[in-house]
Amino acid sequence: MERVYIGLGSNLADPQRQLRGALQALAELPQSRLVTVSSLYASDPLGPADQPRYVNAVAALDTDLAPLALLDALQRIELAQGRERKAERWGPRTLDLDILLFGERLIDQPRLQVPHYHMQARAFVLYPLAEIAPPELRLADGRSLTELLAACPFSGLERLSGAAVTPAVTNVTSR
């Protein structure tokens, strides 16, 4: 099994409920085991400012699924939770699931880039990731998580108190 880190985000239709539903779906993926989940964080939107703040988290998943099979599964989860794919990038959405890191792989395919592009500039990815990843984590391209955090301020990010994900979800082991 390979360790995969998945970014979760939502700013529509009760975002905390959306993330809990996504985590339950991740816990039920075949050939996979949901290992742990970061705290939830509120963040300012990257796109148009006239949308609600996002709720974000990062999950660690151990999986035997191939990268594109996992991507397909994540997109099915998004669709099941009301995600509508629109031409507008960074607009509001019920759920966004991104493969941030996939073991030690560098992936550059039309549908999937790992490490996730621009993650180095996104506090809403790096700080939740740092909460659950080993401190010595290095991305497949050689960059260390510590270096990325030092270059990315915590600004616009708020750790949500009392919004931790329930252990019942984080300890589920799939088939």
Automatic annotation (TrEMBL):
<dbReference type="GO" id="GO:0005524">
    <property type="term" value="F:ATP binding"/>
</dbReference>
<keyword id="KW-0418">Kinase</keyword>
<dbReference type="GO" id="GO:0016301">
    <property type="term" value="F:kinase activity"/>
</dbReference>
<keyword id="KW-0808">Transferase</keyword>
<comment type="pathway">
    <text>Cofactor biosynthesis; tetrahydrofolate biosynthesis; 2-amino-4-hydroxy-6-hydroxymethyl-7,8-dihydropteridine diphosphate from 7,8-dihydroneopterin triphosphate: step 4/4.</text>
</comment>
<dbReference type="GO" id="GO:0046654">
    <property type="term" value="P:tetrahydrofolate biosynthetic process"/>
</dbReference>
<keyword id="KW-0547">Nucleotide-binding</keyword>
<dbReference type="Pfam" id="PF01288">
    <property type="entry name" value="HPPK"/>
</dbReference>
<dbReference type="InterPro" id="IPR035907">
    <property type="entry name" value="Hppk_sf"/>
</dbReference>
<protein>
    <recommendedName>
        <fullName>2-amino-4-hydroxy-6-hydroxymethyldihydropteridine pyrophosphokinase</fullName>
        <ecNumber>2.7.6.3</ecNumber>
    </recommendedName>
</protein>
<dbReference type="InterPro" id="IPR000550">
    <property type="entry name" value="Hppk"/>
</dbReference>
<keyword id="KW-0067">ATP-binding</keyword>
<feature type="domain" description="7,8-dihydro-6-hydroxymethylpterin-pyrophosphokinase">
    <location>
        <begin position="89"/>
        <end position="100"/>
    </location>
</feature>
<comment type="similarity">
    <text>Belongs to the HPPK family.</text>
</comment>
<dbReference type="GO" id="GO:0003848">
    <property type="term" value="F:2-amino-4-hydroxy-6-hydroxymethyldihydropteridine diphosphokinase activity"/>
</dbReference>
<dbReference type="GO" id="GO:0046656">
    <property type="term" value="P:folic acid biosynthetic process"/>
</dbReference>
<comment type="function">
    <text>Catalyzes the transfer of pyrophosphate from adenosine triphosphate (ATP) to 6-hydroxymethyl-7,8-dihydropterin, an enzymatic step in folate biosynthesis pathway.</text>
</comment>
<keyword id="KW-0289">Folate biosynthesis</keyword>
